[in-house]
C-alpha cells in the first residue's frame, strides 16, 4: 500500500471556518457572538457558499455542519468522473449524534424531523450532493475528537475497499440534551463543530499533507490554522 496522505482539510466552529488552503477565518462579529452562545439559527449555506442544496434549510444542525465541512474542503468532489465517485467512501464519527433532533422529534413528531433522527443521515446528504458511492460508516463514540474515523478510513484504504476516504467529525450538543438525558460529566455540556479530512494514497500533488498521528479534530484545526505554506 502506498503512503497515505491528507489531500484536504476543513474546520468550522464557534471560532471560525476555513480549510488548509485559506486558513481559518473569523465569523463576522454579530454572528461570532451568536455562535459563541450556541445560537445557530443563522448558520445558513449562503454564509459561505452559493448554489446550495435545496433541502439545506430543513436539515438538522448535524447535517448542515457536516455538509458545510465537506464543501469547505474545496477538494473538487463535485467534478469527479463517475468511476472515481464509486471509489470514495465516507466515515462520520460523532458523540452526541442526532440527540438534539431526537428530543425535538419526541416533542413534535413531524415527518421532516424523523428523517434526521439517525446520526448517519449526514452521510446520506453528503453522498447525494457529491454522488459518492464508496463504502460508508457512522461511528457513535464517547470521544468528541473524531480519532476513530481516521483509524477506520486507514483500514479500509489499506484493504483496497476505496481509493479515497472522507472522514468527518461532527458535533451538535444542544443546551437541552444534557438537561433531559443522563450525560457524562466528562463530556462538554454544550458545543458545536465539524471537521473533515480527505485521505488517500500519495499522488505527488501540490496539495498534500503527511498523515500524522492525532485526532481528526486536532489535525484539522492545525492544518486550518494558517494557509498552506504560511
Describe the model.
Helices cover 31% and strands 23% of the residues. It is an alpha+beta fold. A hairpin with a 3-residue loop joins strand 2 and strand 3. The longest helix is centred in the first third of the chain and has 12 residues, at 61-72. The mean pLDDT is 90.
CATH fold title: Peroxisomal Thiolase, Chain A, domain 1
CATH structural architecture? 3-Layer(aba) Sandwich
The CATH superfamily appears as: Thiolase/Chalcone synthase
* Distance between the first and last residues' Cα: 31 Å
Strand count:
8
Name the quaternary structure: single chain
Q: What structural class is derived from the secondary structure elements?
A: alpha+beta
Q: What tags apply to this protein structure?
A:
230 residues, alpha+beta, eight-stranded mixed sheet
Secondary-structure map with pairings?
Elements: E1 4-13, E2 16-19, E3 23-25, H1 29-36, H2 61-72, H3 82-85, E4 88-94, H4 99-107, H5 111-114, H6 121-130, E5 136-140, H7 147-158, E6 164-173, H8 177-180, E7 191-201, E8 209-210, H9 216-224
Parallel strand pairs: 4-5, 4-6
Antiparallel strand pairs: 1-2, 1-7, 1-8, 2-3, 6-7
Helix pairs in contact: 2-6
Q: In brief, what are we looking at here?
A:
The protein has 230 residues and is of the alpha+beta class. It has helices at residues 29-36, 61-72, 82-85, 99-107, 111-114, 121-130, 147-158, 177-180, 216-224, and strands at residues 4-13, 16-19, 23-25, 88-94, 136-140, 164-173, 191-201, 209-210.
Amino acid at each position: 500500500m502506498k503512503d497515505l496522505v491528507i489531500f484536504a482539510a476543513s474546520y468550522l466552529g464557534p471560532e471560525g471556518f476555513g480549510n488548509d488552503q485559506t486558513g481559518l477565518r473569523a465569523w463576522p462579529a454579530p454572528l461570532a457572538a451568536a455562535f459563541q452562545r450556541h445560537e445557530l439559527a443563522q448558520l445558513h449555506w449562503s454564509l459561505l457558499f452559493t448554489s446550495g442544496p435545496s433541502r439545506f434549510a430543513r436539515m438538522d444542525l448535524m447535517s448542515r455542519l457536516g455538509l458545510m465541512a465537506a464543501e469547505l474542503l474545496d477538494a473538487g468532489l463535485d467534478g469527479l468522473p463517475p468511476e472515481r465517485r464509486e471509489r470514495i467512501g465516507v466515515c462520520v464519527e460523532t458523540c452526541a449524534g442526532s440527540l438534539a433532533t431526537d428530543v425535538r422529534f419526541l416533542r413534535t413528531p413531524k415527518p421532516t424531523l424523523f428523517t434526521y433522527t439517525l446520526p448517519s443521515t449526514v452521510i446520506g446528504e453528503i453522498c447525494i450532493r457529491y454522488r459518492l458511492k464508496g463504502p460508508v460508516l457512522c461511528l457513535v463514540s464517547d470521544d468528541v475528537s473524531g480519532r476513530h474515523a481516521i483509524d477506520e478510513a486507514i483500514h479500509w484504504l489499506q484493504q483496497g475497499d476505496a481509493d479515497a476516504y472522507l472522514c468527518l467529525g461532527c458535533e451538535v450538543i444542544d443546551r437541552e440534551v444534557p438537561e433531559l438525558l443522563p450525560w457524562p460529566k466528562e463530556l462538554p455540556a454544550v458545543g458545536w463543530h465539524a471537521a473533515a479530512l480527505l485521505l488517500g494514497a500519495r499522488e505527488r500533488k501540490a496539495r498534500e499533507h503527511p498523515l500524522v498521528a492525532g485526532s481528526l479534530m486536532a489535525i484539522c484545526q492545525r492544518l486550518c490554522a494558517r494557509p498552506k505554506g504560511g
